[in-house]
Fold this protein.
Amino acid sequence: METPMRKVIYVLMIATTVWLGIAHVPDVSAQGAPSEAALDRVFQDISVRIGRAVSRVRFDGTWTYEQIVVRDDNLGCANGQRNAPGQTRAWVVRVTVNGFGSYEYRISNDSTLVFFCSGVGVGADAVPPAAAPGSSLPIPPPAGVVASPVTFGAPILAFVGLDGNVYVTSLGSAQGYVPLTGDALGNISEGGYRFARKYYGNLRWSPDGTRLAFTEEGSQTLFVASSGSAPIAIANGLSVEFPPAWSPDGSQIAFAMSGVPSADPNNFTYTIMAAAPTGGPAATIGQIEFGVGCGGGGFGPALMNYFRQAGYNGSEVILKWTPNGFLHTMRCDGTGLALTAFNGTRLWSLPNVSRVRFSPDGFRAVGIAQSLDFRRGSEPVLIDLTSAAVAPLGGAPSADQVGWSSDASTIFIAVRQLIQQATVNPSAPLAASFFALDGQSYRLNLLAMPVTGGPTQLVYESEGYAIAAITPSPTTSLIAFSIVESEAALIGRINANDSYQNVLNAAPRVKIGVAALPLGTPGYPYVIGADGGPPAFSSAASFTAIPAPLMTAPVMPPSGPPLSVPTARPAAPTAVPALRASDGNNPLGLAIGGRAVVPSGAPVIVRSSPRYLADRSNAIGILRPNELVRILAGPIFADNLRWWQVQREIDNFGGWVVDQYIDANGKLETNLQPLR
């Protein structure tokens, strides 16, 4: 029997004076859902709060329910009470009543306990200050955060929370979530995008699972957290589009430095360096060729979330250390797979595969035969990493993402089918504040099939934007995966003329699902109680996590000398042709006091002064695609480039950036686009 993890019910008002529900209402009394009586109690309570009679089938709005695993005595509700000590699973019910507010309830797994958790709007216990267009809302940490060291047992899971910090937990326990970082300061900003003060990612466990490596994009720094110790910085100035790569014995951690133009005009050469995971000097151990020049248009928040889970274009950049050299992605759009020896010789290449996931034993991979449209699935293939032989996965459906089981006997296939195309009403008051929304919702299926071929079985089904980052647990038969929500609820709030704050609260989220083999194992699949991803399992039997203090207000960037690590830097960009200080050239129409957005593509370097210094000694951070800035001063013409002083809206971080330049391939690149 299907066990729904999440159901969404839309109820429409078709007359101005009559509340009329027209919806397919599932049999919520069935196993895998809260009882009808418990749900009725939710709507009775809302009726009292708003002074208007509403029911599950007669009101203007939407409601959802989903099952979660809880880590506290209040069913995962962070309101300081202890309503349900000892409970480990619960139902979260979220109700939005158009024109009144949004309300969240908790129902115990057996449906005997129902209580109000939080809300925004009429009748809510606590109404936070209203957010105005152009402002942002902070993202709270997950409920159940632990502020003291915890020794977790297997299966141990790490992930990046929606607040941007790195967390560790143990599935199936009640030990909570330990933050390894606390300074990300995530928030939801204009457009429904999720931003942070720090961008942690590229989580990679050591072979024995006792150390977790990860990167921070803005400072271009590699960190390693060892069991029983707080994270330490290993190197900076690296190319964070590549993940760190552990040596096969776990004694060293490799990373890619910034690339330089190679003999092939379409490629850069990236130096690979390695250091001990406890710190110390780094040494060059190899180099790889990598295709550059990726860009893109305006990406909506759901697609941006998908890229953060699955990689740009839906395919993450790979760097894997093997005895024969480095397995790596060939191009910045995530396509191609190659094996390059330590001396830089390319041993083999497969230019037409993408979305590659390695088998647990490291001898095979599963991937997708390249499609020209990243929004479409394509043919899953098996790859022999010794011979580079590629074979279709017999009987497999067209796929969006793929993954392995822990024993390498099963392939998991994520499939999606478009079922809804929501559009923003251009006359809605907030329509101009939310741009690049594609509004697509898909039927999401996660399937399992034998690696030898054969029929598929349904593992999980829901509605949303995508499933990504399918990851096996080395110590159990579990898999974890990211579930990216669509923009349908966000667009619905815009079109309902809801408040700016309620619209931001409806921005698409990312959740982590867990499934088990054999299929039908009681209690699976389910969604963990913290949002975020992508998930990363440790192979260790235990890991002691040291919590970092969670910051709640912006802080200034750290100061001090950079880590002493050799770097390889790219050549200076060529300036825009005919750019002269005498002509006051401002082709983009940027204006002091105006706003601009960083276009999709590569991050933009922020400098302390309007000067191009090849060693980046004046670089103080980066701006990420789709971040919003205010123009403070400019233009200033220096080093044959046009500079503007900008300030990021989410935290007031700022400095000087170039608005346009010509890259090494002769392509005009734009770093700032004005918002009209």
Remarks:
- The longest strand covers residues 346-358.
- The helical segments are 36-50, 301-310, 488-495, 500-505.
